[in-house]
Amino acid sequence: MKERAAAKQGGDVSVARTSTGQDASRASTDIDASLVQLLTPEGERRDHPEYSVDLTPEELRELYRDMAKARRVDAEGVTLQRQGELGLWPSLLGQEAAQVGSVRALRDEDYIFPSYREHGVALGRGIDPLNLLAMFRGVNNGGWDPAENNFHLYTLVIGAHTLHATGYAMGVAKDGADLSVITYFGDGATSQGDVSEAFNFAAVYSAPVVFFCQNNQWAISEPAHKQSRVPLYQRASGFGFPGVRVDGNDVLAVLAVTRAALEHTRSGQGPFLIEAFTYRMGAHTTSDDATRYRDADELAEWAGKDPIERLKSYLRTGGWADEDFFDGVEAESDRTAQRIRDAVRAMPDPDGTALFEHIYADGHALVEEERVAFTDHVATLAAAEVA
């Protein structure tokens, strides 16, 4: 597999060079022959010489259901933030196939290190969506036990968790456990030193970790072609392990490639990099205005590659799902959305002094001084309001 990946990487250098100075992300969707795709944007099935999946109609419907649910939960997060119920929300809109396809490839014992946009992965791992929204409401510090679902807490520090994943994978290898680790990050994170360090440690120690980069084309307001002179998956070759670029809007291809990557790492061959070539249809977070740095034509182009619509077309064409099924999924999503809205609005505010808890195991004089000052300040404000 390494030899094949190296051959692919060597053949793409000229493509990256000719794209310099223009929108390389848009150009490469047409000319990058290395992109693994099993389902076209029109919903037509195609074969690939190295990656394939053979799914039952029920499994295909489950993939659709998971993506539709993830999109609806995400939409509720955006709406609730706009209504003042959440402090912030990072939308996954457009990235459902990358997340659902990859999490479906994992075994229960595999361990996940997410960043902060992996809502679809979290749902696929059994995390209650209310825990996600409560965190962005500021009423908990994560809301779930990572050991229960082998799903680590969200990490807001860009790229830092790739080192955590690598360290965990190194420990797994020393223990001789038959499992793999996967960590998710965006294209912008690949410019962080932590990610390069994680790549190097993982390669040197043959750590069983899959690096899953969701290249959604924009690191906040910086396009991907300003982040790297070569396709991101080629970075792996410099560290001595394989990398593959997959159509991140094709849930079947993502599932196939992630399964292969996990088997590669699980069999003792070291790390693997997946670049899921996708697009962030929404803003970076609800505090961002994406219209200030990207044009409507680009958005419209990627809207035509919608991951949910292409699987929907495939299900319809194959006769594996009818309108009753799609209506049922929508109704189920409506019920989930209503539960989320009601529960979030009913969440009580935490005690303000909780900020000062669990900082030091045995307490600390300075933290206690700050707690007293905070308490006195809140009391002063309350008294002024009464007066």
Q: What do you see in this structure?
A:
It is built from 16 helices and seven strands. It has 387 residues and is α/β, with parallel strands linked by helices.
Strand content: 5-15%
From the alpha carbons, calculate the radius of gyration and give it in angstroms. Answer: 22 Å
Order of helices and strands: HHHHHEHHHHEHEEEHEHEHHHH
State the major sheet: 5 strands, parallel
Kindly name the structural category. Answer: alpha/beta
Write a brief structural summary.
By secondary structure, the protein is α/β, with parallel strands linked by helices. The protein contains 16 helices and seven strands.
Distinctive features:
alpha/beta; two-stranded antiparallel ribbon; 5-stranded parallel β-sheet; 387 residues; 7 strands
Q: What is this structure's SSE topology?
A:
Blueprint: H1 2-11, H2 13-19, H3 24-31, H4 57-82, H5 96-104, E1 111-113, H6 119-124, H7 129-137, H8 146-149, H9 160-175, E2 181-186, H10 193-204, E3 209-215, E4 218-219, E5 222-223, H11 235-239, E6 243-247, H12 251-266, E7 272-277, H13 296-303, H14 307-318, H15 323-345, H16 365-386
Parallel strand pairs: 1-2, 2-3, 3-7, 6-7
Antiparallel strand pairs: 4-5
Helix pairs in contact: 4-5, 4-14, 4-15, 5-12, 9-10
